[in-house]
């Protein structure tokens, strides 16, 4: 597990990429990182951010195997996992199953899961505990809708989402949770780029209140190379969780360069 203070840069492919396309992307990542002097097995640090990628379930095992062999410092994650270890949950995948496929991280509580698939705060908390129970890094996604921001409760709303997931955890477990702040109004094809001051309104009080309890706070939502430096300059932002701007591996590598150059 990377130490607190590590910079992070990662992407989730959502429901995109075949197995062949995923392997081609992963191969491009390996070659691109090698060209930047990132040796296999090199640990994250001030000049080498923690890189991660979250493929769809169909590509998870093959992408994990390729990266484990050639770029083991890259964390590979699953886009979701059930809170039970096994059972009659047709269509679901458990944490032991995604770990068996090579996942070392689990994306939990994305707004699309919350809106369309019934992931309440209670279910999210159960999934966080399942990931921790099996030694995986929970990537806890939180964020407010336009309506919540307009009400002025956005900072409190996001803090409540984080607390509901980490309250009651042993501090040694809570500090393994990585938070991804993704305002709902900023993500997806119709999202708008968040201004640094809008991000700060949520992240700064969140970190002041809960920052010592978690591994780090990332920002995601219409992130691109042009806007990344301002987002990384927001106090408390430890890295970026990127969507479509990173689905082309060259775009992702450009963002790796931005995060690496941002340093601390």
From TrEMBL:
GO molecular function: triose-phosphate isomerase activity
Pathway: Carbohydrate degradation; glycolysis; D-glyceraldehyde 3-phosphate from glycerone phosphate: step 1/1; Carbohydrate biosynthesis; gluconeogenesis
UniProt GO BP: gluconeogenesis; glyceraldehyde-3-phosphate biosynthetic process; glycerol catabolic process; glycolytic process
Catalytic activity as recorded in UniProt: D-glyceraldehyde 3-phosphate = dihydroxyacetone phosphate
EC annotation from Swiss-Prot or TrEMBL: 5.3.1.1
GO cellular component: cytosol
Class of this enzyme: isomerase
InterPro entries: Aldolase_TIM, TIM_sf, Triosephosphate_isomerase
Pfam family for this entry, one: TIM
The keyword Disulfide bond is assigned to this record: no
Protein name: Triosephosphate isomerase
Homology family: Belongs to the triosephosphate isomerase family.
Subcellular location: Cytoplasm
Main location: cytoplasm
Keyword Isomerase: yes
Higher taxonomy: Bacteria, Bacillati, Actinomycetota, Actinomycetes, Kineosporiales
Subunit and interaction comment: Homodimer.
Keywords from the named record: Cytoplasm, Gluconeogenesis, Glycolysis, Isomerase
Source superkingdom: Bacteria
């Amino acid at each position: 597990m990377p130490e607190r203070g590590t910079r992070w840069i990662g992407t989730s492919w959502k429901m995109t990429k075949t197995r062949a396309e995923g392997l081609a992307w992963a191969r491009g990542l390996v070659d691109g990182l090698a060209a930047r002097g990132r040796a296999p097995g090199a640990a994250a640090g001030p000049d080498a951010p923690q890189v991660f990628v979250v493929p769809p379930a169909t590509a998870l095992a093959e992408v994990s195997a390729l990266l484990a062999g050639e770029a083991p410092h890259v964390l590979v994650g699953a886009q979701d996992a059930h809170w039970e270890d096994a059972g009659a949950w047709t269509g679901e995948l458990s944490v032991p199953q995604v770990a068996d496929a090579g996942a070392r991280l689990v994306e939990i509580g994305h707004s699309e899961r919350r809106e369309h698939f019934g992931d309440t705060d209670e279910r999210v908390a159960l999934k966080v505990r399942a990931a921790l129970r099996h030694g995986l890094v929970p990537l806890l996604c939180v964020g407010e809708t336009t309506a919540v921001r307009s009400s002025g409760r956005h900072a409190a709303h996001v803090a409540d989402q984080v607390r509901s997931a980490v309250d009651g955890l042993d501090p040694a477990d809570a500090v393994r949770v990585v938070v991804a702040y993704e305002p709902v109004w900023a993500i997806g094809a119709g999202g708008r780029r968040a201004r640094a001051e809008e991000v700060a309104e949520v992240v700064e009080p969140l970190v002041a209140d809960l920052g010592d309890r978690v591994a780090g706070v990332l920002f995601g939502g219409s992130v691109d190379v042009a806007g990344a430096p301002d987002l990384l300059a927001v106090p408390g932002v430890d890295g970026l969780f990127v969507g479509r701007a990173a689905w082309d591996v060259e775009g992702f590598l450009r963002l790796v360069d931005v995060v690496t150059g941002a340093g601390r």
